Amino acid sequence: MGIDRLEFISWMQRMMERFDVLEKLAHSKTNDVVHKEADELLDNQDLLLMLKVSARSLQRYRSKGILPYYCISGKIYYKRSDVAHMIQEGFVRCVDDRKFKKLTTK
Fold it and tell me: What is the CA angle 39-42-45, rounded to 5?
């Protein structure tokens, strides 16, 4: 009992097509997860532990407009992407300040 070569090739093509469909689905799901993580909401406690700052520091960041926040049912939340942007901006400013100080002291 053998299998016909053409039938075998037909089955293999169908299997490869299904693998392609599964690959596309898996890739789209991965992109969805990345976008959801970027917009994840963090509360004060999450941020206190993440940044290792005081509650007063977070309040100062909010009042100065350094860190955007969202109020939902009286509770304050921050987007993870906004926090990452704030950290990136702080790092850039710090590096620029050092370069500026070195240039002005010479």
Answer: 170
What are residue 56's DSSP bridge partners?
Answer: none
Mean pLDDT of the 60-70 span? 93
Please state, in angstroms and rounded to a whole number, the distance separating the CA atoms of residues 78 and 46.
9
- Residue 42 tokens, joined: 């963090």
For residue 71, the surrounding DSSP H or E stretch is strand 70-72
The mean pLDDT value for 15-22 works out to: 89
Read off the pTM: 0.53
Helix (H) or strand (E) holding 41: strand 41-43
Give, in words, the CATH class of 40-105. Answer: mainly alpha
List 72's β-bridge partners, or say none.
75
CA distance 51 to 88: 13
Pairing of strands 75-79, 70-72: antiparallel
